[in-house]
Specification:
Elements (H helix, E strand, L loop, with lengths): L1 H7 L3 H9 L40 E5 L3 E6 L16 H9 L5 E2 L8 E7 L5 H9 L4 E9 L8 E8 L8 E3 L5 E11 L2 E8 L6 H8 L27 E9 L6 E5 L15 E2 L2
Parallel strand pairs: 4-10
Antiparallel strand pairs: 1-2, 2-4, 3-4, 5-9, 5-10, 6-7, 6-8, 8-9, 8-12, 10-11
Helix pairs in contact: 1-2
């Protein structure tokens, strides 16, 4: 088993140290010492060493917390849950530790670059109920974004199309076929060449708002994926995506009460914006 682990894992040095420390265990928790015969189709459990992470320099604010669910106002640049190099600096891990809720689990997700209202179930017995609110489309989600303003476009406008996310590709794409993504786009305010938009999706495809706004010719400010991929230092927090999950409403699946939460995060207008704001009905 030692030979297998050395070959299977990318760095051989920690394998020996972890075996000596009893860090590899079988499904019932018995530690392996590495001298066992290789056993195909056997699960081996271990906690992978965590690489140092740069602290996200924005707070995770709690909007509501009870024994069934937790609602937070997630900042830009913070992933919803551990993935890849982001583990400790994720909303899930931070909320678990801050609130001492080891069974906390996301009821839905926000992109790492998107800020705003995010819901977690607090205990295992409530997980299915709150995840079901989002899986069935019962939650009413409203986003706000900053993007270029095109006075020739007729708005409000309902964007309908088919979005697919090819495996191994960073960008999602609009393709021909049966629609699976729908978003209502409205203008709330204009300032010179830019506008603040209200985006109301009725579906939740990967990068849906970013893909559809870009296809409309209005890429969201600060987007490093659409229309083209821009290489950015992962430790650079100076240019957040100007997209916020502003408001979330749903009927509590446990007690039937109405729930309504709003993000207090702010959008940042471009520095070259100089004109007086105009409200748009």
């Amino acid at each position: 088993m030692r030979d297998f682990l050395v070959a299977r894992l990318p760095d051989a040095a920690p394998v020996t140290e972890m075996l000596d420390a009893g860090a590899f265990v079988d499904p019932v928790g018995r530690p392996w010492d590495g001298d066992e015969p290789y056993r195909p189709h056997t699960f081996i459990w271990f906690h992978r060493p965590l690489a140092p992470e740069t602290t996200v320099p924005f707070p995770l604010n709690v909007l509501d917390a009870n024994d069934r669910f937790v609602v937070v106002d997630k900042p830009h640049f913070m992933a919803t849950m551990p993935r890849g190099s982001h583990v400790q600096e994720t909303a899930l891990v931070k909320a678990r530790l801050a609130l001492d809720l080891p069974e906390l689990a996301p009821a839905h997700r926000l992109d790492r670059l998107t800020a705003g209202v995010l819901v977690f179930s607090a205990r295992r017995e409530y997980r299915a109920a709150y995840q079901g609110v989002f899986q069935t489309g019962a939650a009413l989600k409203t986003y706000e974004a900053l993007a270029p303003y095109n006075p020739s476009l007729e708005l409000p406008h309902r964007l309908v199309g088919r979005i697919e996310k090819p495996r191994g590709v960073m960008q999602a794409v609009l393709v021909p076929g049966e629609p699976n993504a729908e978003t209502l786009v409205e203008v709330l305010e204009t300032r010179g060449r830019y506008a603040r938009y209200r985006l109301t999706p009725t579906t939740g495809k990967t990068h849906q708002l970013r893909v559809q706004m870009c296809a409309l010719g209005l890429p969201i400010l600060g987007d490093t994926l659409y229309p083209s991929v821009v290489e950015v230092d992962p430790n650079d927090f100076s240019g957040p995506l100007q997209l916020i999950a502003r408001r979330l409403r749903f009927t509590d699946p446990v007690d039937g009460s109405p729930r309504d939460y709003s993000s207090e995060r702010a959008l940042v207008w471009p520095a070259d914006e100089t004109q007086v704001p105009q409200k748009v009905r």
